[in-house]
Amino acid sequence: MKFLKRTDLDCFLTAAAEHRTIYVPIDEEPNKSAYRRYKPRTPVSQGLKTTRSAKDFFFPQTENLVGFRIEDKKIKILDPRTEHEDFAVFGVRACDARSFGILDKVFLSEPVDTYYQNRRAHGLILTMTCRRPAETCFCTAFGIDPASPEGDIVFTETADGWYIEPKTEGGRDFLAPLEEFLEERDEGGAEEAKARTRETMEKLPLAGLKTDSFGGGKTKELFDRPEWASLSEACIGCGTCTFVCPTCQCYDIRDYDTGREVRRFRCWDSCMYSDFTKMAGGNPRLTQKERFRQRFMHKLVYFPENNGGEFGCVGCGRCLASCPIHMNIVKVMKTLSEGQDEQ
Amino acid sequence: MQEMMKNRAKALLADGTVSRVIGWRRGEFSYDVTPAVFETAEELERDFVFDAFCGANVSKYLIRESAKDGGRILAFLKPCDAFSFNQLLAEHRVRRENVYLIGIPCAGKADIDRIKKAGIDGVLGIAEDGEDFVVSTVYGEERVKQADVLAERCLACKSKRHPVYDELLGEEGEDLPDDVRFAGVAKLETMTAEERFDFWRSELSKCIRCNACRNVCPACTCENCVFDNPDSGISQKTAADPFEENMYHIIRAFHVAGRCTDCGECSRVCPEHIPLHLLNRKFIKDIDELYGTYRAGEDDGTKNPLTSYTEGDAEASVVRERGRA
Ligand code: SF4
Ligand code: SF4
Ligand code: SF4
Ligand code: SF4
Ligand code: SF4
To answer: Which of A210, A242, B14, B151 could pair with B111 in a Cys bridge, judged by C-beta atoms 3.0 to 4.6 Å apart?
Structure first.
């Protein structure tokens, strides 16, 4: 199997960056990283997860869709679109890799979102296995194997480098000009690394988290459960959990009047916000309890109901790490499942 | 401390002084506690926790809780939480008669991010052992000095004294000197305007506009924030333009100037670790320098210098006189 030595990573990425833009996780401070455009000799983060997910590459926080300007009494339409550049994202974990499939179900079904579609078509996903999962990780609950991520090329990490397996045509093309940086190694090392990851997953505190109480068709059982009141009581209705989440997919479209032109842009929205369901006829979700319930019902019941049973969460644990009051999907699942056993 | 608090809470529930208790509920990994309202001794016994990770300021919840009928609610307040509460009281946002306050001493709260920064992950449990935390993890046992993982706001604590309470548990503390608290601002002041501009542009560019800083802030209690109100003309979730986006922080800092008690919640909750306290502390330091020392939340009688006029007030020309500092 092909192998990239840790010491050769910089040359490998530098050469790759000649063919397309490469984004890598960079440490902003210890244990906090963000994806940045790769520049030669910048150290790539060794951390497990970026604070923001990788969904930004396909579904950015804010993007200009179209602009309008009045010129000579005519409306001129401005095209700000830029999503046609080839790029690759390096170091994506299995959870985030799976999230793209979930977003695809939303953005690529009719009517297709062409902004998203273009970015997907131009982006390669270079995934990496997890050597040091965190206590907040529970991807395995959703059938994700962190030792065997999806993606165009899988990098299986060991102490001194990565075993490399291209999984798609795009992945093979990407590697073709980079062969000189790779060496041939017996694949036993890769198997060993994968086995270690799987062993660690079993020792994590959230190993064995059950999803049986959730899924399509559970709306009736779960919607009116009294526990929603206490689960949501401390929620401050920020959108942190939704914005760090790789699968949260809601957005708002607004016009920004610059004085000279109007820019129509879209930006992430959050079901945790009070105006999320505001419409001409009023607002059906009047308190934080209803908004809070929406987020978890969507991930655990409505999304699977509409998508052949697939859950809308990948267990990345970001909402566990970032919620200001430490309320999250795991606590919701445990509380509601417990109540169910008692019933 | 936890046992003392629990017992006191049970006693006050039993004798009818209060009908509810706001505190912190146990989590999954020992550091992830959640503010919660307890109504019975059994609930308290099962889930009430108080330890180094119970940093969340519960004062803001008292706006909602004190508006409810059905008896008083007991709240345990750290000194900084008591300053927040007092400020809310001054602004008539809480109903004092519906709250019973117990002031609790505070030696500083731990910041789990600082533990993780020390390279510790896979946390299974955290125990206090003398001056250390012993952290058991999937990867083995680790030790850190508690003093090394204190939250930023605790390193810069302004006072160990409670400006308001009904009773105190433990010893009352004293005010602390301000120099540590303002060191970060002083450093920013020595930068050139361009350096400072770049510093803030780079920090604020990380913002995901989750609004956690605003929603957690005990000074941000507007029924309808300007940023949520479509009629305000500046309502936004994120702006189309990144510079416009930065204005959110500047506007918010102006809105809470003179009312911010420096409780540190904004910086605590920011998922992007943006040092928001530096913005607010700059205002506090400027107010101190231009109008004389003023502490929001100190006493519900004193006047906020920004909303009261005296003849000696700084003139608008102060901006020019102080140069671009
Ligand atoms: S709900 Fe939480 S754990 Fe699930 S995918 Fe979103 S951020 Fe990750
Ligand atoms: S949730 Fe799973 S795939 Fe994601 S970082 Fe953790 S172990 Fe890796
Ligand atoms: S669950 Fe947590 S992160 Fe999500 S909106 Fe509520 S307080 Fe914010
Ligand atoms: S908490 Fe941080 S990321 Fe969220 S809006 Fe405030 S500054 Fe931005
Ligand atoms: S930012 Fe201003 S308008 Fe919004 S809640 Fe805070 S003080 Fe009120």
So the answer is: B151
Residue A149 distance to chain B (closest CA, Å): 20
- Cβ distance B39 to B91 under 8 Å? no
Q: Which pair of tokens denotes residue A320?
A: 């566990």
Nearest to A127 by CA among A39, A199, A54: A54
Measured between beta carbons, the chain A residues lying within 8 angstroms of B212 are: 236, 238-240, 324
Strands A21-29 and A87-92 turn out to be parallel
CA-B252 nearest atom, ligand 5: 1
Q: What pLDDT was estimated at residue A320?
A: 96
Mutation pick from B112, B137, B210, B276 vs chain A, by most beta carbons of A within 10 Å, is B210
Q: Chain B residue closest to A324 (CA)?
A: B269
- In chain A, the residue whose alpha carbon lies closest to the alpha carbon of B273 is A32
CB A79 within 8 A of CB A132: no
CA pair distance A117, B228, nearest whole angstrom: 31
Q: Tell whether B202 lies on the interface with A, counting CB pairs under 8 A.
A: no
Chain B residue with Cα closest to A133: B122
Amino acid at position A114, single letter: T
Percent of chain B with pLDDT over 70: 97
Contact B279, B253 (CB under 8 A): yes
Asked if A129 and A146 touch (Cβ cutoff 8 Å), the reply is: yes
Q: How far apart are CA A221 and CA A274, in angstroms?
A: 25
CA of A61 to the centre of ligand 3 (A): 18
Picking from A130, A243, A257 by the largest number of B CB atoms within 10 A of its own CB, the best residue to mutate is A243
User: Percentage of chain B with pLDDT > 90?
Assistant: 71
Mean predicted confidence (pLDDT) in B217-244: 81
The answer to whether the CB of A22 is under 6 A from ligand 2 is no
Q: What is the distance between the alpha carbons of residues B110 and B52, in angstroms, rounded to a whole number? A: 5
- pTM of the model as a whole: 0.91
The CA-CA-CA angle for residues B61, B66, B67, to 5°, reads 105
Backbone φ and ψ of A259, nearest 5°: 100, -35
pLDDT, tens digit (0-9, with 9 covering 90-100), for A247-282: 998 888 888 888 888 888 888 888 887 776 666 666
Cα–Cα distances (Å) from B210 to A42, A62, A324, B252, B324, in that order, read 29, 13, 11, 14, 31
Residue B164's pLDDT is what?
92
Atom 7 of ligand 3, nearest CA residue: A235
Q: Does the Cβ of A317 fall within 6 Å of ligand 2?
A: yes
Which pLDDT does position A290 carry in this prediction?
83
Q: Which residues contact B284 (CB under 8 A, 6 or more apart)?
A: B260, B262, B296
| Rounded distance between C-alpha atoms, residue A213 and residue A233, angstroms | 22
Name the pairing type of β-strands A251-257 and A262-268: antiparallel
B42 CA: distance to closest CA in chain A (Å):
16
